[in-house]
């Protein structure tokens, strides 16, 4: 459906040949050009959303209903005490976890989550937006927004928890919170903020919805943010025109920030994030609205930054990491994305900071999160309640257990 040849060529070149299949021993595996990769389940979780490693090798895992757990030596902790109360429904709940670059000294971790407003209106009612088609929950009446808090991890509890950032304004509705947290190499904290299925806030500089946010780890605003001192613009905004970004990563060895975002009906995007740029939503998209209404393509408004790569049909990207390990040679230097609706692991290739292609590896499971383990294995979280596995991917002949 895209008129832009730049986008259609890599999509046509995409290979769908690789799928996870069971080997003779019953284990799931992927067959890559450089060898087989075995997929091992390390445990089950309730709607797991995100993972982050502590410097000592323990793994933090969030569950959307509101639990943070610590996985270590093949055992799983009880929920960490002191985690903020979350408003759990559909896409909202406990979302990402990030570890302070100086964790060894300060013990700080950061959580993104959905919080209900302290004052709830008595007459809140969702109004149908035709652009969302049936992709809208009209029964929700809770005024809410995504927030980011940090606290000190002491044993199995979180202490001195303070909220450092909030989405504004809060709105009813259960979708498009965003919620990724990511530390830059210089120690600044990036937050991906979704547009709450409200479209226009992504272009409204008085709102921090539909934006990439940059703050100091204590919640204060860096003086070199692009809109500091500009009338009618929030100083926490780094870039604008985003829909629902659920994956962010710095390309290793560079200060290049890559963020993907869910498109509407098709048109998921991978973007190199440049300070102060407008990425176009909802004015332009490679997809269309859920009621099939057209949206102009990025090529029709060249003043808005076009994606470096777009997926038609949609993959529903969630989670993003650049693989730097030696265990799985085929993936070295490439970006790994989870796919929800596509039930896949997406492998994106680069030449410098140019995207050269994307391959879809069918997993048969909704992949929510991708993290590289310290030993070079790849860990995935599978979305959902009973099937919310933690998966470890490593070569079949790999001797090291997760
Ligand atoms: Ca865009």
What report would you give on this structure?
The chain is mainly β and 402 residues long. The protein is 3% helix and 40% strand. The strands form 6 sheets. The protein has a 6-stranded antiparallel beta sheet, with no helix packed on it. Strands 4-5-6-7 form a 4-stranded antiparallel beta sheet, with no helix packed on it. A hairpin with a 5-residue loop joins β25 and β26. Calcium ion (CA) is lined by residues 269, 279-281, 307.
Summarize the structure.
The protein has 402 residues and is mainly β. The protein has helices at 5-13, 103-106; strands spanning 21-22, 28-32, 35-45, 48-53, 59-63, 67-72, 75-76, 94-99, 108-116, 144-154, 157-166, 178-183, 189-193, 211-215, 237-240, 244-250, 257-262, 268-273, 309-311, 317-322, 335-339, 344-351, 354-362, 367-372, 378-382, 388-395. The protein has 2 helices and 26 strands.
Main features:
402 residues, mainly beta, 6-stranded antiparallel sheet, 4-stranded antiparallel sheet, 2 helices, globular, disordered N terminus, binds calcium ion
Low-confidence stretches: 1-16
Overall SS class: mainly beta
What are the bound molecules? Answer: calcium ion
Give the N-terminus to C-terminus distance in angstroms: 43 Å
Give, in order, the helices and strands.
Answer: HEEEEEEEEHEEEEEEEEEEEEEEEEEE
Rg on CA atoms, Å: 20 Å
Tell the overall outline: globular
Major sheet size, sense and barrel closure: 6 strands, antiparallel
Tally the beta strands. 26
Helix content: under 10%
Q: Please report which band the strand proportion falls in: under 5%, 5-15%, 15-25%, 25-35%, 35-45% or over 45%.
A: 35-45%
Report strand order across the widest sheet. Answer: 1-2-3-26-25-24
What's the helix count? 2
What is the arithmetic mean of pLDDT?
A: 93
Tell me which oligomeric state these chains represent. Answer: single chain
């Amino acid at each position: 459906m895209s008129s832009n040849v730049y986008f259609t060529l890599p999509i046509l070149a995409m290979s769908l040949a690789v799928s996870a299949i069971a080997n003779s021993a019953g284990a799931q595996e992927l067959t890559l050009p450089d060898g087989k990769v075995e997929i091992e389940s390390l445990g089950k979780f309730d709607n797991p959303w995100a993972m982050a490693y502590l410097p000592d090798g323990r793994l933090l895992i969030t569950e959307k209903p509101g639990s943070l757990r610590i996985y270590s030596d093949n055992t799983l902790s009880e929920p960490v005490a002191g985690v903020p109360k979350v408003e759990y429904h559909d896409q909202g709940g406990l979302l990402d976890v990030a570890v302070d670059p100086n964790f060894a000294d300060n013990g700080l971790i950061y959580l993104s989550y959905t919080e209900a407003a302290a004052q709830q209106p008595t007459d809140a009612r969702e109004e149908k937006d035709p652009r969302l088609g049936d992709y809208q929950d009209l029964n929700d009446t809770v005024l809410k927004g995504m927030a980011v808090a940090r606290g000190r991890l002491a044993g199995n509890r979180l202490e001195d928890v303070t909220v450092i950032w909030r989405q504004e304004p809060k709105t009813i509705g259960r979708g498009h919170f965003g919620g990724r947290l990511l530390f830059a190499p210089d120690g600044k904290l990036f937050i991906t903020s979704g547009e709450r299925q409200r479209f226009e806030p992504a272009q409204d500089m008085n709102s921090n919805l539909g934006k990439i946010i940059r703050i100091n780890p204590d919640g204060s605003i860096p003086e070199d943010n692009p809109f500091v001192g500009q009338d009618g613009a929030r100083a926490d905004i780094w870039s604008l025109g985003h829909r629902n970004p659920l994956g962010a990563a710095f390309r290793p060895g560079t200060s290049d920030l890559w963020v993907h975002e869910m498109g509407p009906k098709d048109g998921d995007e991978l973007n190199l994030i440049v300070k102060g740029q407008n990425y176009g939503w909802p004015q332009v998209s490679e997809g269309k609205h859920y009621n099939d209404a057209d949206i102009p393509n990025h090529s029709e408004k060249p003043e808005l930054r076009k994606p470096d790569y777009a997926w038609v049909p949609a993959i529903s990207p969630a989670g993003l990491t650049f693989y730097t390990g030696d265990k799985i040679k085929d993936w070295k230097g490439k970006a790994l994305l989870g796919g929800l609706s596509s039930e896949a692991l997406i492998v994106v290739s680069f030449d410098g900071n140019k995207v050269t292609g994307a391959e879809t590896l069918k997993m048969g499971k909704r992949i929510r999160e991708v993290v590289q383990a310290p030993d070079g294995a790849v860990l995935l979280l599978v979305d959902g309640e009973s099937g919310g596995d933690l998966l470890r991917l490593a070569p079949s002949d790999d001797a090291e257990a997760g």
